[in-house]
Write a structure and sequence with these properties.
Strand order of the largest sheet: 3-2-1-4-5-9-8
Largest sheet: 7 strands, mixed
Structural class: alpha/beta
Number of domains: 2
Bound molecules: S-adenosylmethionine
Number of helices: 12
Helix content: 25-40%
Radius of gyration: 20 Å
CATH architecture of the largest domain: 3-Layer(aba) Sandwich
CATH topology of the largest domain: Rossmann fold
Strand content: 15-25%
CATH class of the largest domain: Alpha Beta
Shape: elongated
CATH superfamily of the largest domain: Vaccinia Virus protein VP39
Length: 298
């Protein structure tokens, strides 16, 4: 299945306010938003994209041939600043996973598809879910399931995982999902392993920390009047975003060496937006999306 971009018109309409400007797509995926942004730019405009996933970067290189476009592997942080100029007009983040990642059994993101328990967005760094589960203590696993999945059975699932692990390593998505389903049979449509998979994925990919670094870096690069649009898919991400853009907050961060004290003065330029019922009907995966957009004060 290809990836259907979420809140496409709404996000790009809010983002692109200067056709000659410099824009960043911090989460290229399969390029749905990037292509739309490029369609709104003049020949003087430019778009720089990032993705942690090498497959997304290779996809971009093989499908977009446009002098105004460039893409880099990784996340938008102080290291990636070297590829950029300051005075960026707009930055988009469409966090989370692409359908293409979820649908590829070999990536190990989906409890519905039997594959190795990997779950890394960036296959060139970090450790797989399988490796983490083999090293983590019961308490560490329970904490992750609670913190990143709000899983109310976090302690029992963590115990189940560590007890099973002692007999035989959990190396596949099917094994982990089956184990949880056996203990907590499915009630309704939601698979009982949904929150466990989400929590482990967020943890091993450092998604919340990266989101914070992305926003700090974006703040650093954005010109006055520039716009940040974010699309989040769960409440943890959305909470961080809301918190970040609270008026006049002062932030100090170890990863932003150039100007560690940043006064954030942003205006929200839209109420939080959600997909319409029509969009959800056409793309079930859009149902939890929340869009926010902010403009940096002049
Ligand atoms: C929801 S998809 C983006 C879809 C894209 N907007 C499109 O229309 O095709 C998220 C993509 O961003 C990547 N990603 C997620 N969080 C990231 C981050 N903090 N930094 C860089 N890439 C990230 C994932 O690997 C994935 O390919």
């Amino acid at each position: 299945m290809t990836h259907i971009p979420v809140l496409l018109e709404e996000s790009v309409d809010l983002l692109v306010h200067n056709p000659n400007g410099v824009y960043i797509d911090g989460t290229f995926g399969r390029g749905g938003h990037s292509k739309k942004i490029l369609s709104k730019l003049s020949s003087k405009g430019s778009l720089i994209a990032f993705d942690k996933d090498l497959e997304a970067v290779n996809f971009a290189k093989s499908t977009i041939s446009d002098k105004r476009f460039s893409i880099f592997h990784g996340t938008l942080n102080s290291k990636s600043i070297k590829h950029l100029t300051y005075g960026v007009d707009g930055i988009l983040f469409d966090f989370g996973l692409c359908s293409t990642q979820l649908d590829d059994a070999e990536r190990g993101f989906s409890f519905g598809k039997a594959g190795p328990l990997d779950m890394r967005m960036n296959q060139e760094s970090g450790i797989s879910a399988m490796e983490w589960l083999s090293k983590a203590t019961e308490k560490e696993i329970a904490d992750v399931l609670w913190k990143y999945g709000e899983e109310k059975h976090s302690k029992s699932i963590a115990r189940l995982i560590t007890n099973t692990q002692q007999r035989q390593p959990i190396t596949s998505t099917a094994k982990l999902a089956g184990l949880i389903e056996e203990k907590f049979p499915r009630v309704g449509r939601k698979h009982p392993a949904t929150k466990t998979f989400q929590a482990i994925r967020i943890y091993i990919n450092d998604e919340i920390e990266d989101l914070k670094i992305n926003l700090l870096t974006a703040d650093h690069l954005l010109s006055s009047g520039g716009i940040i649009v974010t699309i989040a898919f769960h409440s943890l991400e959305d909470r961080e975003i809301k918190e970040f853009f609270k008026p006049s907050r002062t932030e100090v961060h170890k990863d932003i060496p150039l100007n560690p004290i940043i006064e954030k003065k942003y205006n929200s330029i839209t109420n939080k937006l959600k997909p319409t019922p029509e969009e959800i009907l056409n793309n079930q995966r859009s149902r939890s999306a929340i869009l926010r957009a902010y403009q940096k004060n002049e």
